[in-house]
Amino acid sequence: MVATFPPPYTSSAQLPRMLAAHGSAALAAEDLAALCDTTPVALDELAASWDDLPEDAYLRDGGRYRHRRHACYLVEDGRLLPGPRRAHYQPLDYNALHGGMQRWFEPITEAVQAHPAWQALLLGLSAQCSAVKPAARWHVEAHQFRIDTGEGIGRPTPEGAHRDGVDFVAVILVRRHAIIGGETRVFAADRPDGQRFTLCQPWSLLLMDDARMIHETTPIQPQGEDAGHRDTLVLTWRAAGFLGDAPD
Fold first, then answer.
1. Could you give the C-alpha distances from 128 to 132, 147, 230, in angstroms and in order?
2. Is 123 helix (H, G, I), strand (E, B) or coil?
3. Three-state DSSP state, 200
4. Which strands form 168-177's sheet, in the order they lie side by side?
């Protein structure tokens, strides 16, 4: 039997200090909701939208286990503004498997983007990023992911341990269904220090300073005869423009 380690949750009040001191911090769902001036019940209203994610057509390992939607925003003066419709881009230096190409994903639906809990989540976490690293404008990308076990194995991070080339990365677990695996691993980029734990609680959060931390999630397998899945929301913040639109 594989050991499962609980996340090292901190309090919402200590989140900026933990992020600045250690490069990453985790929050339980109730603390994330309170931090973003919403409720777990309101966040749960978004969960059904993960049932309607198109297949990711760009997987270079030949798999069909990943489904996703994508959206971009600007956060400025405490306002969440719709960003340009654009491809998701990462340099090869940050994503050796899928970097260097323009990946056009279907947009996150208007109903999700207009939901008060969605907007509260993005604005609340943007404020936490600004508390650690002030920025006049954040360029934010949002990714809805579903990794399933229909082929037996699903890989949340097929590129392996990586950085994303941004300032901050948030990984929010939306739900786990009938799976084993999916352990989160977070490492310091400049020394052999790291943590491993499994996000199991819906709407629990891992927030990372991308310049200082490397992260990955281990593959998932079905728990039982039926296929399962792992749903996450991944958010990134970058002050110097969207990747691909400005010099790195």
1. 7, 28, 26
2. helix
3. coil
4. 24-27, 204-209, 168-177, 229-238, 138-148, 66-76, 79-82
Q: Which amino acid is at 34?
A: A
Strands 168-177 and 220-222 turn out to be unpaired
Give yes or no for residue 223 having a pLDDT over 70. yes
Supply 78's token pair.
């405490």
Q: What is the pLDDT of residue 98?
A: 79
CA 84 to chain CA mean position, Å: 20
92: pLDDT strictly greater than 90: no
pTM over 0.90: yes
68, 59 contact by CB (below 8 A):
no
**What are the b/e assignments for 203-235, b being 16+ CB within 10 Å?**
bbbbbbbbebbbbbbbbbebeeeebbbbbbbbb
Kindly compute the dihedral angle of the four CA atoms of residues 18, 21, 23, 27, in this order, to the nearest 10 degrees: 0
